[in-house]
Amino acid sequence: MKRFTWLVTLAIVLSYSSGFGQIWMSRAASQQMLQEQALPAVSSGNSGIQINPKIQFQTIDGFGYTLTGGSSQLILALAPDQQKSLLTELFGTSKNSIGISVLRIAVGASDLDANTFSYDDIPAGQKDEKLEHFSLKASEKDLIPMMQEIKKINPSIKFMATPWSPPAWMKDNQATKGGSLLPQYYGVYAQYLVKYLKSMEKLGLPFDYLTPQNEPLHPGNNPSLLMLASQQNDFIKNHLGPAFKKAGLTTKILAYDHNCDKPEYPIEILNDPITRKYVAGSAFHLYNGDISALGVVRKAHPDKEVYFTEQWTGAKGEFAGDFNWHIKNVIIGSLVNDAKTALEWNLANDPQWGPHTPGGCTECKGAITIQAAGALIRNQAYYIVAQASKFIPTGSIRIALTNLPKGMIGVAVLRPDKQIAVLLQNETQEPIKTAISLLGKQWELEIPKEGVLSILLNKE
């Protein structure tokens, strides 16, 4: 992630009807982020980078983070006025908000909770096949009220459910870390997940998606689970999919939810003619592999969606290097490879990178660091997501963007309000002079060797 090539991102919104425009500049190297600047002039012409709204690709659901129990605990500890102000900044739709639209939620504990737990924990050696001890109590003090507060601010927020581990009594090692789900509990675990989704829905918190397992090929975290492709296929095909159908759940099942180095994992699942009926798409991280894997899976199964669901920034990471790498790969890279979401990892942590479980991540840097006195530090991941979420709302459609100069990558979208947003990234160490054109109008721009521009332009 520590790449020191100067990278530049340009986010442009071209209005079909409004008579004004806006421009913001971010320079990651000096940490001068999202500062409003003067507008470039519009002229007649059709040179430079070309935007074509008639050629359309995937609809984008949005951008965001994983809201962990630890994040919720820290935010809820803020003074009421500061808490409200922060949540409005993160999830509101005003000019001063960054418009987060998707949150990933752990089913039970993730490794960034203070302790490991599931929603059906019982004494060692016992089992609860009828799920009589199922309870959301472990999340009633922090995660659930936090989600409810966010839902009030943004009623259209999308939630993605992801378990880090089933209850330990369902696993072959009887532990929260590692092990595999015992086949005799596949059906019970499917009912556990149905019960979770139904219980959360009763609290006013319906889920748009569920992935059966976070990082199924990484059983070394705490909590975690090893779930091979054949096991996940069996689980979805014969248990989870039918259970969702019987319960009348419309939550989308997304396969995999792990690194881009194993596209064969979701492809194996989607190749099964029965399983694929229950699966809406697949989810990816980028700790290994290349972001183009999303496009590989999409090409193999063009009727199934792809999602980018997690990438961390580390405590030892360098601000500009992390920001630039993530803009290239997580934001632009995932979108041009058909992703409907692009999510960073943890929303918030304390200065010691906690809370975390024993054996959980000790260097995961949240988008926001919340200090003991309530002071807030907005880190790399805050601006990585803001660069997209502030300008690309839910329901935007990716459109064609061509004739990019050498050393530049980009993506364009048609927003629901009929404005157009464009992200461009300059990967060279020199400024690039170019124009961007739409329907006979063009804007001359000089993009500096370092920084991010977010521009709202009137095409008239």
UniProtKB/TrEMBL annotation:
Keywords: Glycosidase, Hydrolase, Signal. Signal peptide: none annotated. Residues 395-452 form the Glycosyl hydrolase family 30 beta sandwich domain. Residues 60-392 form the Glycosyl hydrolase family 30 TIM-barrel domain. GO terms for molecular function: hydrolase activity. PANTHER family: GLUCOSYLCERAMIDASE, LYSOSOMAL ACID GLUCOSYLCERAMIDASE. Belongs to the glycosyl hydrolase 30 family. This is Glycoside hydrolase family 30 beta sandwich domain-containing protein. It comes from Aquirufa regiilacus.
